[in-house]
Amino acid sequence: MPSTDNTTAPAAVIKNTRIQYAQERYFVDQPTAPGTYLGPIDASLPNADKVPLLFQPFTIKDLTIANRVVVAPMCMFSSTDGFFTDFHLVHLGSFAASGAGLVIAEATGVQPNGRISPSDTGLWKDEHIPGLKRIADFVHAQGSKIGIQLAHAGRKASVKGYYADLPESEFWKDNVVGPSGGAEFQWDEKHNVPRELSIEEIQETVKAFGAAAVRAAKAGLDTVEIHGAHGYLIHNFLSPISNQRTDQYGGSLENRARFLLEVVREVRANFPAEKPIFLRVSATDHVEHLGEASWEIEQTIQIAKWVKEAGVDVFHVSAGGNTAKQVVKYAPGYQVPFAERVKNEVPGLTVVAVGVITEGKQANDILENEKADLVAVGRAFLREPSVTLKFARELNVKAKYSQQYERGRL
């Protein structure tokens, strides 16, 4: 954004600066949020008067979304030094303009060495705030809501992203960390050997999550999601596969969950109380075939109870990612049963289901059958950024289009 300090600038410069600023801040009013239910497409169809749950609004604390479609965080590897770019504005903004109720930005490093790759976004310094705020302002202008996933990649950090061809100097292979260190804790040969975090470093990391939450609030975000899944640092602490410490952060489930709970409390203390906090977890390590001690659904249910008491409002249930030994049987909705277990056994906790959810009826059935409260969609949005409107058509729902796209309605 251009500077607003023009006290000594010529009048013509001041005028041109104001015009440029107005152009950058120009939004078309959206009287009704895209993705809002307007009625049935065909009122003659059976049950046409019943509003599918997927297109009913949902409220958590002061966050109200127009429908129950959540854009899951997806790494884009399109950043330099953590800064959000024009790509992120277009990428995330397109989902909001096409009707998604809530857009969650990708896994964003709370520390430089917490990034998956040098091309990840970050929130470890105040200079990152303006770029994120620009995106949040655009999403809000469309009538949608936005959050961000706060992350530390742990032992899976400092790897090459999908697109960036970066020099070796951009990586930090000697500063990849985990709860336990050494070659036996290397994820696979493509990843780096982690070193063990000290107690002091653990506490610094906890504080970094809180500081990132402050920056997210300053950027105007509606929620933050703590990343505790997919083999990244919090998951590393939770699972006995990757955590073999003998101090207060290892051993028993209570000890292995200590880092997570400290992060949750720190984020909660540093993010507005009226705004919800999400937590994404992996419900299982997917190594049941080995018969080894690992992270499984029963432990996930226990920590769901603990984090609810600590301040988590929404529990986003994924699976896997913590070991190369995993065996995952991919299928439509393959992770939904884990979300259903948590929803059934932890009353009062809002639950998000994710995992190959690609059809409107499939997504709505998850909600109607009370397997989850919200559904998150990832790769389907990459194939079709307007997948929310696709779901609407499949469910005989006339959903609001953005003002600029209304002429494209079928």
From TrEMBL:
SUPFAM superfamilies: FMN-linked oxidoreductases. CDD domains: OYE_YqiM_FMN (cd02932). Pfam families: Oxidored_FMN (PF00724). Residues 54-396 form the NADH:flavin oxidoreductase/NADH oxidase N-terminal domain. It comes from the Eukaryota. Its cofactor is FMN. Keywords: Flavoprotein, FMN, NADP, Oxidoreductase. GO terms for molecular function: FMN binding; NADP binding; NADPH dehydrogenase activity. This is NADH:flavin oxidoreductase/NADH oxidase N-terminal domain-containing protein. The lineage of its organism: Eukaryota, Fungi, Fungi incertae sedis, Mucoromycota, Mortierellomycotina.
